[in-house]
Amino acid sequence: MRHTLMAIATAFVTTVSGVAMAQQAKSLAIGATLPATDKTFTNTSGGSDMAYYKGADKNGFLVVFSCNTCPFVVKNEGTIKRTLAYAKKHGIGVVIVNSNEAKRDGDDSYGEMKKYAIAQGYDVPYLIDKNSELADMFGASHTPEVYLFDKKSKLVYKGAMNDNPGSPTEAKVAYINDAIDAVVAGKAPNPAETKSIGCSIKRK
Predict the structure, then answer these.
(1) What pTM, to 2 d.p., does this model score?
(2) Does 3.50.50.60 match the CATH number of domain 29-200?
(3) Domain segments of the chain as ranges
């Protein structure tokens, strides 16, 4: 019996690890083209559906995976606001995407997202990612997590906004600002990828 239970446990761990690796392998690669341009999402900041790629601007497009209550998001609220302003100043369009489908009846409901967008003063779309479809296409795993595309809709940077998401006031490098500077200058961001640190996206 003991050996049977151990075998089941081992099989379970192996399966979970395999699923995790498979999900990680699906992460959108640097150089990939912006996916799902035919998809529409409910914009809680405006109350209507929109094709998310229409949030792009002349120099590029920044997709921010976020939510309402993740401690890492809360800690980085100031960083997110500054990033929105920096992107807008440099001709980079932004949308914020909430993929926490498992919490859609609670903290990340339409009503709560709408209130949060107002409280944060968002002047960009805050979108409901139904069934985490967009997060799955991107391979997004955490909140906050960002994906920056150039004006040709090619992915040039993904990962964290700064080098200390757990304590953003102590951050020394603003990765996303540096990546935006590079895109505007027609250069490749360096680094092009960093590790996203935060709360896991709550998929159903």
Answers:
(1) 0.88
(2) no
(3) 29-200
